[in-house]
Amino acid sequence: xxxxxxxxxxxxxxxxxxxxxxxxxxxxxxxxxxxxxxxxxxxxxxxxxxxxxxxxxxxxxxxxxxxxxxxxxxxxxxxxxxxxxxxxxxxxxxxxxxxxxxxxxxxxxxxxxxxxxxxxxxxxxxxxxxxxxxxxxxxxxxxxxxxxxxxxxxxxxxxxxxxxxxxxxxxxxxxxxxxxxxxxxxxxxxxxxxxxxxxxxxxxxxxxxxxxxxxxxxxxxxxxxxxxxxxxxxxxxxxxxxxxxxxxxxxxxxxxxxxxxxxxxxxxxxxxxxxxxxxxxxxxxxxxxxxxxxxxxxxxxxxxxxxxxxxxxxxxxxxxxxxxxxxxxxxxxxxxxxxxxxxxxxxxxxxxxxxxxxxxxxxxxxxxxxxxxxxxxxxxxxxxxxxxxx
Length: 390
Known about the structure:
Layout: E1 2-6, E2 11-20, E3 26-34, H1 38-54, H2 65-80, H3 83-101, H4 111-120, H5 137-156, H6 183-193, H7 198-210, H8 214-218, E4 225-226, E5 231-234, E6 236-241, E7 245-250, E8 258-261, H9 264-284, H10 307-321, H11 330-341, H12 346-353, H13 358-364, H14 366-389
Helix pairs in contact: 2-3, 7-9, 7-11, 12-13
């Protein structure tokens, strides 16, 4: 016998009797679904009966962890996460999470399993690259985030009663102080850039003078630039995933959408560069593959650059010119630090960087603020000494 009953404002419980146990107690299987029309509910009930009769129905709490992750991918991961974040999640899931929890049922994973897993990530040898120590605190926190997401969905979908990650505190991230260039090193950098192609000279100059992210720079189109006013209108970011290829998407937060005034020398260089790009596009004719999208920085045929190509070029450039090694992203930190040291207001710096709030800027650049504060104290000391000499 199969039937259904309403169990909430918008939920229906499907019920199928499957006989009696050895003690004569009635056995049944149930499944709760969102409320639909009567016809749809009856169809779902019929499908549920068929699943049970053919042996394809698995009680949710008896589901293998790997099976649930497959459901999570289809019902949440692909739909709710950005393509790049989803690809990153899959890398972490396949590398360590599935090998650790894949043999268990979803209901068998408990809080101690999670705690032990996160602890083991700190052990020597876990990196797999012969380097001492475990994974970085940031990477461990990322594993915690993914597990919390997966098990939260399992709890929401009534597959388990409570997430085993719920009472596991988020691991603390030990921030490595960003390596940044001081003004003298920036001058050395700018001198070295005089010897490179105008495209790369602009990419680096923009990173230093605007603090823009790598994806935002390679995602710029000529429509995003007002060369007369000398302004960037930052709206998009270029990402790349193996499944979807290049994607030009809106920046990650509404605060990331911003207007940035350019240094006059950068505007002048951009005008020269645009003339070069216009001629290149015209000469390519049918070989142009950029479509209607005219990116400021692209491959020779107009197709988007792979964002990682910037990182590769930057690393080789530093080595050739014997400059201090910092990551390309740390040019963003360099820009912020220079702005702070020159006494600019934190609200203006936060807006220029596209932070969600001024607190984010304060947290990230506390070390630079401390240095700036020491500079202020020294300036007062100079003032006091002059006063005492009168």
